[in-house]
Each structure stands twice: as structure tokens, then as C-alpha cells.
Amino acid sequence: MSSLTALIERLPKAELHLHIEGSFEPELMFAIAERNQIEIPFKTVDDIRKAYEFENLQDFLDIYYVGMNVLQTEQDFFDLTHAYLTRAHADNVRHVEIFFDPQGHTDRGVAFSTAIDGITRALKQGKAEWGISHELIMCFLRHLSEEAAFETLEMAKPHLDKICGVGLDSSENGFPPSKFERVFAASRDLGLKLVAHAGEEGAPEYVYEALDLLKVDRIDHGNRALEDDALVKRLVDEQMTLTVCPLSNLKLGGVSSLTDHPLKRMLGLGLRAMVNSDDPAYFGGYVNQNYIETATAVGLTSVEIIQLAKNSFLGSFLPEADIARHIADIDAVSETV
Ligand code: HPA
Ligand code: ZN
Fold first, then answer.
1. What confidence tens digit (pLDDT) does each residue in 93-120 have?
2. Residue 218, in any domain of the structure
3. Ligand 1 pocket: which of 142, 168, 200, 224 to mutate (most atoms <8 Å of CB)?
């Protein structure tokens, strides 16, 4: 094992950009489909994996929404989330802020409470079993209407004790952040944190809109901000966290090779970038795999890898004292390098 791999494995990390439905491994999908007597358009786990060839974000989303159809019961959402936390624990992840897509479930007749109760039960168990702290972020699907987002926010109101923030995901181009300005303002009034996918496929203008109109606390992805020097300067000045997902960018065509990935450039510019797995069951790796493959491809130094791990906590919604404790743990590991 290389020394960088060993360092990555030993570093405490937070994951801030993870769609729980995107951690649905084919084996579990088959097991739950059978349990719920639901037909899926694949015969074997291998068939499923072969279908995971994507040209772009929409290609992926088309199959991602089919996959989540088998999730029906509270136990299904528990099993999904518990499986993710098991993997996260193996990667020495100490804190997670995960996304879920309520509209992907309520639109097919699964109650909001079924999804959130199963996810939350597993998050609590992850805390009890492994000490992994957690927050849950509910995303609005941006290809659906503003009205549908407001209906989802209404459904969330009895569950606000379980939700720390709202996000914005799904197809980006043609669905600008501006469409959701009012529902983000209403979410902010409820005391919720705000994040949004922007600049994954969309132009830098979408990142500006996320900052200026949605008033987000973090940008999810943000890669295309690099096309605009003034925007980069602003993101650096504001120390805005970018939740970067290298293997996702590779699988969805954001970069043609991991050697072209902008992560090292982002750090060099002073951006607060950190590393995540996004939809690991679909993109070929959990968080350590993202660190290891990218570090190898772009030549990250141990100092840069340590900075990424620190950024993962600095960008989190944890209280300052908890962030300081995790950073001290990272310093303890880095002293041995
Ligand atoms: N981008 C946008 N929407 C998503 C993604 C993503 O990578 N994963 C799940 N929903
Ligand atoms: Zn994402």
C-alpha cells in the first residue's frame, strides 16, 4: 500500500455530498426488489453494473430514478442507509451530511414519513454503533415545479427536528437556481441551512444565482466556477465550501480523464474544496476511493490531502467545538506522516 493511501485511510473525514439513493448497491437492490416482489429490468447484478455507463448527468438520473422505485418500506430506507454507513465507517468517516430526494418517493406513493423515518433510524444507529455524527438534507428536484417544491417543504414541516437543511439536485441545465428563490427563502425562514448543486454541468451564472438568490451556505460541485476568475475570487474570499465529487465528474463526463480533474487547481487557488462520493454505487467508489484515485491522478501531496480532510469538517454544519476536535484528530494523524 502506498503511503498516501495509508494516510487517506487513517485520516478522519466528513462526507457532505452523498445522495443516499445513490448508495443503493445492486446486491441490495435485488434483495429489496425480491422482498417487495417488484420486477426490475435486470436479471443479474452484472447486468445492472453494465447498465451504469453514462454520457452525462441525465443518462445517470434516468437510471437512478428507476433504481429507487424498489424502495417501499421504512425498513428498506433503513437498510439502504445502514449499508452506506457501514461503508463510510470502513473509510474512517466520522461525520455525514447526507441528501435524500423526498419527491423521488412521494411521487410514487411512498409517504414522506416512511422515507425519513427509515433513514433517521439508521443514522441514529450509526451514531450508537460507530459514533458517526450526522445531519440530513432534503433536496428539491429542480426539474419539477416550484409549487411541487413548496408542497415538499410543507410535508417536511412535521419532521423539522430530523432535517438540518435543504438542497437542490437533479437535471441542472435549463433549471436555474432562480426558479427556487422563494422556496429557499421560506426554508431559510424555518431555520434550515441551504445548499445547492451548481456548476456541475451548468454555467458559472448558476453558481452566482445559488450565492445571490438562494443565499446558500455551500455549493455542491461548483467545478465550472473555475471558468470565471471573479467568481473564484469571491468563493475564496467568502471561504465558500465546494463539495467536489471526482469519480462522479469522471463518470458523468465533466472531465474526460481523472488526470484533468481540477481538484488540485482548486486547492492551489485557495478554494475550500473537499472530497465526496456523490452516488458511490453508480460511480465506482466510496469516499476513500475518490481520494486515492484523484490523489494518484493529479499528484496530490500529503499536505493537500490533509487540507482536504480538514476542509471536510470546516465546511460541515457541525458546531465549532466539534470541528475543532476533529481537526485536532487530523493534526494527530498528520504529525505521524
Ligand atoms: N447531480 C445532480 N443530481 C443528482 C446527482 C448529481 O450528481 N445525484 C443524485 N441526484
Ligand atoms: Zn450530487
1. 999 999 999 999 999 999 999 999 999 9
2. no
3. 200
Q: What is the pLDDT of residues 43-85, one digit of tens each?
A: 999 999 999 999 999 999 999 999 999 999 999 999 999 999 9
90 domain-assigned: yes
Rounded distance from Cα 248 to ligand 1 centre (Å): 9
Which atom in ligand 1 lies closest to the alpha carbon of residue 200?
Answer: 1
**Rounded distance between C-alpha atoms, residue 244 and residue 312, angstroms:** 10
Question: Scanning the structure block, which residue is given the C-alpha cell 465506482?
Answer: 284
- Cβ(220) to ligand 1 under 6 A? no
Q: Does a structural domain hold residue 328?
A: no
Q: Count up the domains in the chain and report the number.
A: 1
Q: Which domain holds residue 136?
A: 18-163
Query: Could you tell me the CATH number of the domain that includes residue 122?
Result: 3.20.20.140
Please determine, for residue 257, whether its predicted confidence score (pLDDT) is greater than 90.
yes
The pTM is what? Answer: 0.98
Cβ–Cβ contacts within 10 Å for residue 140, how many? 27
In testing the pocket of ligand 1, which one of 100, 141, 169 has its CB within 8 Å of the most ligand atoms?
A: 169
Q: Distance between alpha carbon 55 and the CA centroid of its chain, in Å? A: 20
Which residues are part of the catalytic machinery? 200
Residue 71 lies in a domain: yes
Neighbours of 154 (CB within 10 A): 11
Q: Rounded to whole angstroms, how far apart are CA atoms 7 and 287?
A: 13
Distance 171 CA to ligand 1 centre (A): 7
